[in-house]
Amino acid sequence: MANSINVQPNPYELPSEEEESYVDYYYDDPEDLPGTLDLEPDAPPPEIALIDYTENIATRIKIVNPEVCISYLQSESVSWINVLGLGNQTSWQQMAKVFQIHPLSVGDIVNVPQRPKVIHDKNQLIIITWMVRIKSDSEPFDKEQVSIILGEKHLITVQENPEYDCLKPVRERIKNNQGIIRKQKVDYLAYSLVDTIINGFFPVLEEYGERIEILEDEVVFKPDRHTMQKIYKFRR
User: Fold this and answer.
1) Is-cis flag, bond preceding 140, omega within 30?
2) Which long-range contacts (CB under 8 A, 24 or more apart) does 8-14 make?
3) Which tens digit of pLDDT belongs to each residue from 2-57?
4) Tens-digit pLDDT profile for residues 91-114
5) How many Cα atoms sit within 13 Å of 76 on the Cβ side?
6) How many angstroms separate the CA atoms of 40 and 69, rounded?
7) How far, in Å, are 87, 178, 220, 221 from residue 155 at the CA level?
8) Under 8 Å between Cβ of 74 and 40
9) In sequence order, which residues have a C-beta less than 8 Å from that of residue 128 and are 6 or more positions away?
């Protein structure tokens, strides 16, 4: 009678390519011209809201045509234009014309995801960064690109996903005239937005810390064939 061989599972088995979780940054197609926008032609236009404020008054209106913002840009108030969703090429052609955004910078804004960067473009400072939030047990966090275009008296934020908005605290401070934000210029608004985005990372880091502690206990006291997969996933 032949001896049966008991094959033990490999405890160091790594996850398959489908199970890997990592950031796949956007790369231009070599055949595309510089500044080509990778957007669906029939995509709906983005949702645009304008918050215009001074120390004494704040106004919020929905924008359909970006040209409506021109009169606000010529005033002494601070204008914050918030764009939800990436929209389509037509909408961005209008945005680029009104706010004088270079075509290459528009590409960095809408061809997501990009690596975080800061771009100096004439009289504008463009910040490409990410915002994160805790999502679920299976997916530790959700992430999306957010772009900030800082002008002389105006600021534009472009959020990839309309369903998630970590900038609400800043919006509420402007609405309720809390703190010094309405007494300051547009550069303070940019600082407040970046600060709020960074603060959104701390709950995610705390969640990761707790999960790492649980994984450490598993490695020491009860490792199995899935432990290495979990470690590998955390590293990615």
Assistant:
1) no
2) 9/225, 10/225, 11/223, 11/224, 11/225, 11/227, 11/228, 12/228, 13/225, 13/228, 13/229, 14/228, 14/229, 14/232
3) 454 444 444 444 444 444 445 566 656 665 667 788 888 788 889 999 999 999 99
4) 999 999 999 999 999 999 999 989
5) 5
6) 25
7) 19, 19, 51, 53
8) no
9) 108, 109, 114, 115, 116, 117, 118, 119, 145, 147
32-199 CATH: 3.30.460.20
Q: Look up the pTM and report it.
A: 0.81
| Domain range annotation of the chain | 32-199
Query: 25 with 96: CB under 8 angstroms?
Result: no
For 229, phi then psi, to 5°, come to -65, -40
Report CA Rg, the chain: 23
State yes or no: pLDDT of 129 exceeds 90. Answer: yes
CA distance 68 to 88: 19
Of 217, 230, 221, 212, residue with least CA distance to 11: 230
118 membership: H or E segment, kind and range: strand 117-121
The encoded tokens of residue 37 equal 């926008």
